[in-house]
Amino acid sequence: MTPWQKENLRYQKEKGDQPVWSPSVISGIHSDEEQSEDQTEENHEEGAETEDSEHAPRSFADRLPNLKKYRNRVLLRRLLLIIGVLLIPLLFILYYVSPLSKLADVKVVGNDQVSAQSIIEHSDLTTGEEIWPQYFDREQTEQAIKKALPRVKNVQVTITSLNQFEIRVSEYQEVALLASDNHYSPILESGVVINEPSDQPLEGLPILESFSDQSKIKEVLTAYQKLSQEIREGISQIKYTPRDSNDELLTIYMNDGNQVIVNISNMASQMQYYPQIAKDLKEDSIIDMEVGIFTYPISNTNDSDSATEQSTEGDS
């Protein structure tokens, strides 16, 4: 309080009168109740200010950092797109001029009778040349190999690594031998006779004799493949013995000494009865299946041939 206030307060007390003004008001001191009310009002005002600040729209300055981040992301995506568009042709050019675009090696698998070198030579594949044009022409390559090499049954050209080819082949099996001039040439399951004569026949393969027509050979092999494994293993030789009235006639020589006369067209259906018939034979016999089925000993045929020869000599 100011000196004059203090003096006035002292004077009023001496007179016994109460001052018309409150010292607390003058001195800036409020009562507890007034302070509580004032504090409540202040808190209310602060809360209102806080709520207003939360709901108030953000200024451009507050949104500026997020806007910069968004623009940076957009620019980065565009930059990556441009780099990718430029990089792809560059990689293609580098691959084209590099050794990876040239055929480095050709490998042959699955071959047995045909040499790998022969297959590669007839494939027309060239190492050191562009790999993709040769790969796109692989069907022509496969056909060229099959045409040049009759032993090849199937062939497939594939890429096994970045610049290497693999030629996978399968071969026709040898199913018979063609006897001609004391030489034996292999016959494939396709009916093709390979010009690779040998002095000695391979064991386990039947020998075809007196055949000159390719179509007849194929017909016989087709019928032969329909026979059971037991009957095929029992055949040692198949001879073409046509007559004027029958150009399909075969004489089949069996390993057990018997002979079977049968038509090519009936070979598969009638030869299935051979095991049962042979079981009842007492000696080596001829089983004639040309018309029906009947048998007679081979010795009778030999005696008849001898008698014919003696008669001819006597007449001379």
From TrEMBL:
Annotated region described as Disordered, given as residue ranges: 1-60
One GO CC term on file: plasma membrane
Composition bias (Basic and acidic residues) maps to 7-17, 41-60
Keywords, ordered alphabetically: Cell cycle, Cell division, Cell membrane, Membrane, Transmembrane, Transmembrane helix
Q: Which InterPro entries match?
A: Cell_div_FtsQ/DivIB_C (IPR005548), DivIB (IPR026580), FtsQ_DivIB (IPR050487), POTRA (IPR034746), POTRA_FtsQ_type (IPR013685)
Q: Which PROSITE patterns match?
A: POTRA
The places in or outside the cell where this protein is found are: Cell membrane; Membrane
Q: Which residues form the POTRA domain?
A: 101-172
Main localization (coarse): membrane
The GO annotation for biological process reads:
FtsZ-dependent cytokinesis
Stated membrane topology is: Single-pass type II membrane protein
Q: Which HAMAP family does UniProt cross-reference here?
A: DivIB
Q: What is this protein called?
A: Cell division protein DivIB
Species this chain originates from = Enterococcus gallinarum
